Amino acid sequence: MKNSYSVTVIPYHEFKKAGFDIHFVTEKGNTPDCDVKMLAGMTQKLLVGCLLGATKNVCGLYAQMKEDMKSTNIVAWTDEDFSLDPYDLVFLPGGHEKGVVQVINSPIVHRLIADYFPKTKKPSRKSCAAICHGVMVLSESSLPGGKSVLHDVTTTALPGAMEQSIFWSTRLFLGDYYKTYGAGSESVETSVKGCWHFCAVPTDLNSFIREDENYNYISGRFPPDSKLLAEKTILMVQAVTGE
Q: Would the pTM count as exceeding 0.70?
């Protein structure tokens, strides 16, 4: 699974500083990687020029995270005994590289989320946060009656206008890299809005997050929201757990 660099790395380091016990969850329990195009080589240099690639500082944070993973618990969501119940927080970082469909489309992940997310309804000590394509993991997860777990939740997501503008501005040298499901596929915003709930998606570049009133749930749109999302998530978890 390939996650976008900053929507994973920045929250990871904020959670680590806050003293959270962090577990990575992947399909088979293997060590995950972030999107190499954003982190190294000519594409990274081109994307930095477009304000999209990883900066030297974020590359350093990523290297630290990868080193931490050597002694971090990485578990498999396909393990028969795996459950999200023991966790106070489920964080879904997303990313646009094609490999992220591994989690967005996983029936097992959908089942796990459908079981966990309703338990975040206030008052509860369980919380959830998502950013970028991570919101699609939630919107694609359905309750027994067929409705998305987000059907009665206020959320934000990657704005369609931003997704399209980045796709067209990089298409000449990156093809459909910025369209997870390929050129011509619907935007994240359209997909999430199709789940019959309110979706707030401002298109300015200032940091923005959306907190739901009825669930311990916070969402962000894209990388520039990562730090604010992490900070607000930490405050939420500390408030509902009393820790």
A: yes
